[in-house]
Design brief:
The protein contains 12 helices and no strands. The chain is an all-alpha fold and 206 residues long. Helix 8 packs antiparallel against helix 9. The longest helix has 13 residues.
């Protein structure tokens, strides 16, 4: 699966033009130039540039596709506590992509990233508690992490929270709260949320 770079404006304030030039080059599909500038920026300590190099090696953008190099740069970004990189490496451990599958390592990295307000990490923690990946099934913990992810705008978390209130998993059944969460995702154009809205006739709950 092709990965995409994050455009982080705040990075340029800290590390100057190398990252910006690399990002512009990447957007224009000038991958070799992008690689050169991301490499300079990463070696100067820019964790997002390191993450971007990981993505380029994963995709084969301007470089030979190389999983080991991708993981190396991802780990470098993680060492700098980059929440996007930590979330990605945790996902790799959860799925066994480029590394040996290890739910405990995934969990630790997701925790770190979620505490830095990465919504996908918080959602994934909720999912791990929902299905029991590396942790015991705990719907109350799942709800707690879904709530954090939802507060950060994660639509999947909004949907899962809504369904948990419908089915009384980890929380008392509450159709009004279910409607509130699912409506937020529906109003963002989420098709799954729209389907649940119709299926459970949630319009009447508001």
């Amino acid at each position: 699966m092709k990965k995409f770079l994050f455009s982080m404006a705040c990075v340029s304030l800290l590390f100057g033009s190398d990252y910006d030039v690399g990002l512009d080059a990447y957007k224009n599909k000038e991958y070799k130039q992008a690689y050169e500038y991301f490499l300079k920026s990463a070696n100067a300590g820019n964790s997002q540039a390191a993450h971007n190099l990981s993505i380029m090696y994963h995709n084969g953008d301007g470089v030979t596709q190389n999983t080991a190099e991708s993981i190396k740069w991802l780990e470098k970004a993680c060492d700098a506590k980059n929440p996007y990189a930590m979330t990605q490496l945790a996902s790799n451990y959860m799925n066994g992509t480029g590394v040996q599958k290890d739910y405990k390592k995934a969990y630790v990295l997701f925790i770190e990233a979620a505490l830095l307000d990465n919504s996908q990490a918080a959602y994934n923690l909720g999912y791990m508690y929902t299905v029991g990946l590396g942790v015991g099934i705990n719907n109350k913990e799942a709800v707690s992490w879904y709530e954090k992810a939802a507060s950060l705008g994660n639509e999947d978390a909004l949907i899962n929270l809504g369904f948990m209130y419908i089915s009384a998993q980890g929380v008392p059944k509450d159709m009004k709260k279910a409607a509130m969460y699912i409506k937020k995702a529906k109003d963002n154009g989420n098709d799954k949320a729209a389907s649940l809205w119709e299926q459970f006739e949630l319009e009447k709950e508001l």
